[in-house]
Specification:
The chain has 14 helices and 11 strands. It is of the alpha/beta class and 320 residues long. Helix 1 packs parallel to helix 5, helix 1 packs across helix 6 and helix 9 packs across helix 10. The longest helix is centred in the last third of the chain and has 19 residues. This is AraC family transcriptional regulator.
Length: 320
């Protein structure tokens, strides 16, 4: 195996978890593979090689300056509060040196830096949910998907907020060294191997707005607490004491989604938790989550997560 160089860019105001999360994953690869020479040569660099202070006040000392850093296999750009623009020295360095890396990776708002450097034009990407609209508005040549926790488009990989950088790093280790290596690292870090990239950044309750009217809030609570119940529009409208048509219109206006989509997302999330946390069979879970049949649950999982329930359980349930 060939050792791959990973270079993590540091700057004033960088988000510390955006740096340390992927670093822990890549550093763990040598142990997981069982051959130090086959892991990753992980280095950090700032523009002048000097220490930087993170957004939380933590002081990080880089290994070198960017001018002296080797051309990496994987270039990781974390997010943070630094004020960068197209003429910023860091942006210019990324524009000049980013294309030389075999793999470009951003964590959280690091995607903003890559976009300003012109490295995301024509790509499908994601970033922290709070910055998706801004990224799309400022860089119309970039296709921004606000939902997934990470997105792969060719040699460019972008992740959402903070901890999703760990998910993306585990995915890259799995790509480079196989599933067992990534699983070993995930066990050591006590995280799942691994949340699928198209898993949503939010739960259904967070993704949808909370309704302002009490009857609709009660319906949202009822759906979350009774995923296996009758959650048809007619049944939910009766609970809200509204006509089905009025209920559907009001629910969408106040939550930003339709009742059906909200129910679908709640049921998938509940089924995911049962697959991850219990030994219950898929048929039992499908009934308890309101699907009725395993096939109906399978279709919902493939549509939402891109993987059937059985594969999800094998890949994402922690192994004792």
């Amino acid at each position: 195996m060939t050792q791959r160089t990973v270079l993590v860019v540091l700057f004033e105001g960088v988000q510390s978890l955006d740096v340390t999360g992927p670093l822990e994953v890549f550093h763990g690869a040598a142990h997981a593979v069982g051959d130090p020479a086959a892991g990753y040569d992980v280095r950090t660099a700032s523009l002048d090689g000097g220490p930087v202070r993170t957004s939380s006040g933590l002081r990080l000392v880089p290994d070198t300056d960017l001018a002296s850093a080797p051309v990496p296999h994987t270039l990781v750009v974390p997010g943070g509060d630094g004020n960068h623009h197209e003429d910023d020295p860091l942006t210019r360095w990324l524009a000049a040196h980013g294309p030389r890396a075999e793999r470009l990776v951003s964590v959280c708002t690091g995607a903003m830096l890559l976009a300003r450097a012109g490295l995301l034009d024509g790509r499908r990407v994601t970033t922290h949910w709070a910055f998706c609209d801004r990224l799309a508005r400022e860089h119309p040549a970039v296709t921004v998907d606000p939902d997934p926790i990470f997105v792969r488009d060719g040699n460019v990989a972008t992740s959402a907020g903070v901890t999703s950088g760990i998910d993306l790093a585990l995915a890259l280790v799995e790509e480079d060294h196989g599933r067992e290596a990534a699983l070993t690292i995930a066990r050591y870090l006590v995280v799942f191997l691994r949340r699928p990239g198209n898993q949503a950044q939010f739960s259904a309750q967070l993704a949808a707005q909370t309704a302002s009217r009490s009857p609709l809030r009660e319906v949202q609570r009822w759906v979350s607490e009774h995923p296996g119940g009758d959650l048809s529009v007619e049944a939910l409208a009766e609970r809200a004491r509204l006509s089905p048509r009025h209920f559907a219109r009001a629910f969408r206006a106040e939550t930003g989604t339709t009742p059906g989509r909200y129910v679908d997302r709640v049921r998938v999330e509940h089924a995911r938790r049962l697959l991850e946390e219990t030994p219950d069979g898929i048929e039992e879970i499908s009934r308890s989550c309101g699907y009725g049949t395993p096939e109906a649950m399978r279709r919902a999982f493939v549509r939402t997560l891109g993987t059937p329930p059985a594969d999800y359980r094998r890949r994402f349930r922690p192994t004792p």
